[in-house]
Amino acid sequence: MKRATANLILCMALLGPAKMAWAGNIDDIRSLVYAWADAWQNQNIKHYTSFYSPTFRSKGLDFKDWIQKKTDFFQRPGRIRVGISDLWIFIEGKNATARFVQRYQDSKVSDVGEKTLGLVHSKDKWKIISEEWKPLLIPARTPGAPATSLIQHKFYVDNRPSEPVSQKNTKPSNKTIVKSIKLKTEKNYEEFFIALNTFSIPKVQSIEGQKPRIVIDINNVSSWSGKYKMPVNGHLIKQIRTCLHRDTETLRIVLDLKYADDYIIDQTYDRKANIYSIAVR
Questions:
Q1: Which of 24, 26, 176, 177 could bridge 11 with an S-S bond, Cβ 3.0-4.6 Å?
Q2: Which CATH number fits domain 153-280: 3.90.1570.10, 1.25.40.80, 3.30.470.10, 2.60.40.3500?
Q3: Is the pLDDT of residue 95 over 80?
Q4: Smallest Cα–Cα separation from 267: which of 3, 32, 15?
Q5: pTM of this prediction?
């Protein structure tokens, strides 16, 4: 599935012993978010409000008052556009968070912001119970620069690859220790693993253009002895770079990708083993 804009969809679940138990719900939420945006863009108030729980609250408004506000807004003349990118989904039990970059445009307003939807799973459906928006300053894309489309595809942590790059130093337990980073290369995909000593979700972003790459930031890391550059020359990942920013105690890991029109990726966090992975195909 391709979309007009470049999307990085980061779907992540807290996976316990039954690691695939919530996999379907990740896809359910992903579909819900895009259907919600389509209903908004089509100004279909009945369909749009069906995604919300009666317990929804926003900026002091209860569900009934909020529905009235949106109904009045949807009746305004003119076409609107709603774009979604960088979708990240986090599930824990019957609660979930969907965070993404939202691009909105109508005849009078054009803005870009980070939208966060809080959801609850009830009666076999996900419903939105809260939402927040904050503005973002997004640099303009260089004219003529090709876009790399990074689109989610389900992939589950399987066999662990061998020959890890290990962190040898021992640090206090209150710090995040990157125990090893590993790359598994197969014919149709490559998977990058980060083994940690504790639960910690990295911050991930994509860089588009002629030199596409995935940037992974891990916080609260006080030391790192891994190599700065690790050429791997895989089918998709050509190099791994690492750098510890000691002032912020942030370990940055960069996956340099080979140029392609489209990438399909997925993130997974295995909470039982504290292993974070990115699959690229």
A1: 26
A2: 2.60.40.3500
A3: yes
A4: 15
A5: 0.49
